[in-house]
Specification:
The protein is α+β, with helices and mostly antiparallel strands and 151 residues long. It contains seven helices and three strands. The longest helix has 25 residues.
Amino acid sequence: MTLEWDIDLESFIRGSAVEATTNRPFEELQNSLSDTWKKLVQIVRQFGRQHNVSVLVEVWPETGRVIFLVNDQSEFARVILRACSLERRYHEIWTLDDQQFESAYASLVDTVLLTIQQVVADAPSSSESDIVVTGRAADDSVTERLLTPPN
């Protein structure tokens, strides 16, 4: 399968970039995401708009695979993946009552936003490259390998 590298963010928001890349309707992809994943994707989109970062999210529910394509510094993409690993760690929040859930979820979102903001603030503006980051929801070892810098 050929992946698009230069993703227009507005096309992504409208769904055409996702549909063109995955050959699956955007609505189907959206419906396959948990509410927490949807919120994380929404955060990434909003942050991308503010910082002119193009982001593509490709989801394969049958395999639990999620791909983020980001045409910006690699650290930004690593933060997005880290945000997704946080979602897995907070999987137990669905068993909490409403008040406990709100507290845990607010903590998750705050962590994601603060981490992304810090990395973008620290990253040199000239270090732009096209990168792809992959992770599997059921396999933390993949995420850990991707987040561990090479020696």
